[in-house]
Amino acid sequence: MLYFLLIPTYLNSNQKLVLLSLVFITTYIIPLLILILFKKIKLIKTFNAHSIRERKIPVAMMVVLFYLLGNTLFRISNIDDLRLLFYATCGALFLVYLLFFFNLKTSIHLISMGITTGFFMVLGAKYGYPFPVTVIITIILAGIVANARLHLKAHSALEVYLGYFVGFFSPFAIYYFL
């Protein structure tokens, strides 16, 4: 939604609503239903998925969903930026999945905060306007989320920092390769 407030598009209100609905269903409803299914069939013990073993299948599923969403948006003109966002998320989650093989867990909360910050910085470079308030707010929010994750002992400092930096650099990498 923030994207539509900050970046002018040629989409009308109905098109924006359809697009936001597609994104909401793909990134919230479908994963939630799949997690409920995974819990029912005992692939995961809790929705928190603390262990790497419990995170593997949900993260792999999210890689596929974000990739498919990026491909779907690729077919719609005037929203290249959103395609970048979802491919960057797919790339970051794929890297998270690869890190599992090295027994490294990362904070997915901080990945999303890093992606948001990096995404608006890439947009700033692309459009010649740096979105300073947006970037500063996302950095402050990332600090608050990181502090909360550490306070809850959900992650180590390494997992929090790794999550943020994987997320932060993924929009830059995807933008460079697209």
TrEMBL record:
Any idea which UniProt keywords this protein has? Membrane, Transmembrane, Transmembrane helix
Q: Does the keyword Membrane apply?
A: yes
Q: Which residues cross the membrane?
A: 17-38, 59-78, 84-101, 108-125, 131-148, 160-177
Q: This protein is called what?
A: PAP2 family protein
Recorded source organism is: Polaribacter cellanae
